[in-house]
Amino acid sequence: MGLSSILLLQAPPIPSLSSSTHFCCHSSSLPPPCAISKLQRRPQLFPSASPPSRGWNLSRKRCALAARAAAGGSAAEALRRILESPGIHQGPACFDALSGRLVERAGFPLCFMSGFSVSAARLGLPDVGLISYGEMADQGRQITQAVSIPIIGDGDNGYGNAMNVKRTVKGFIQAGFAGIIIEDQVSPKACGHTRGRKVVSREEAVMHIKAAIDARRESGSDIVIVARTDSRQAVSLEESLKRSRAFADAGADVLFIDALASREEMKAFCEISPLLPKMANMLEGGGKTPILNPVELEEIGFKIVSYPLSLIGVSIRAMEDALAAIKSGRVPPPGSLPSFDEIKDTLGFNDYYEEEKRYSISPSQPSYQRVYSPGMSSAYNTRLTTAERPEQSQRADDPSDPVVEVVTPYVYDNFNSGDRSRQSGMWSRSLRLKITGRNGLEKLDVRIPAGFLEGMAGVIPGLGGVNIMQMLEDASIEGGPESGKILLDFNDAMGDRIQVFVE
């Protein structure tokens, strides 16, 4: 069990910043908002001083899930404990199950699912509102099932009006998200750092946040509602601050203004509703917001910070470099390409093999029988047991060795039909079946017991409507079945030539 799991198991049970605690801000019969600040602090779930061990595996994930259950249960509760703990918490943005697993393996306490990156990775399209609610929920479900750390999902603008927002929140809850970001852009929405941003009215934006909170209550969930506004670029800084205050009054858990343009704007944002956590977005590579280190962000007043483009960006560059190397006749250098063993370790092959051993059974070859009665379509019996083939039981058992089934035909001589009884000699002979395509190329050339031919008729393409058994009986009546004699020679419905010879 890793250090993070031990900390979870040892953490004392204390009140969490649940939705019910947050609602006390709006009830005269419950404690005032300042009561939130008096909650006992928990230790960080994944201390940054503890480097992650390589080989994050299935058993460790199970331990982490068990520890989370012992510490309070849901992913949302785990996220709330992170928000209550001291310091600032970094969350790189993933886009699929593998990138989410790598974030967890690196030791981060939480992860974001980036709509920008999911649109790029899943659709190969820009983040301009083309990806749908269903695609985002499905992608999120794959991610949350692959990790044990809380994931904050990008709910965009809820994909419509307030009723759509409620459906989106409920769907994200079912997908396993710990938190959801709801923004106030009009449809179609787009990345907040791109041009042409437009937002709905302040009143409608507030109703969307209230709808999200209602959906949470109706679902019996504690999912964290992150209220985002894009009005800084669409309208003004003053409008974005007013909207953030309104979102806090509506019951949002975390506030987020995207595309703040300076340190001063970031400080002004963190001064409003000081009891609520603030989210920063460090858009790498040329966004509108200054890139600050975690210490600087914490000093300003932020609680969580996302890095939306790092993983998708380096993935694009790495794939381009690898493709250029392959095109030039080389392979990517060892420094940029993990070994096959490292790749298998990252994906959990070795852990799978270890766990698989728990359910292994005796490697001895089991006995089995297959019996075809005369009433079935094929006139043969098949039996094979280890008693009849002792060499099978004597060989060294190796799970990797192929198991070869030997089929032995049995001839029936007790047909009631006089015609059939006359052909008992034919049924015991071996035949050569040859099929030549209409293009002159040989498709099949095998030797089979005569009794198998009826069964073969059911699997050879183009034999529909051809009574092979009657043709075989008619052919065998005309003289003795000398070796090499052609019994059948005809073209099937597909134009292939089918020939049957006596061996």
From TrEMBL:
InterPro entries linked to this entry: ICL/PEPM (IPR039556), Pyrv/PenolPyrv_kinase-like_dom (IPR015813), Pyrv_kinase-like_dom_sf (IPR040442)
Pfam families, sorted: PEP_mutase
GO MF term set: catalytic activity
Domain of life of the source: Eukaryota
PANTHER family per the UniProt record, alphabetical: PHOSPHOENOLPYRUVATE CARBOXYLASE (PTHR42905), PHOSPHOENOLPYRUVATE CARBOXYLASE FAMILY PROTEIN (PTHR42905:SF2)
Protein name per the record: Isocitrate lyase
Organism annotation: Musa acuminata subsp. malaccensis
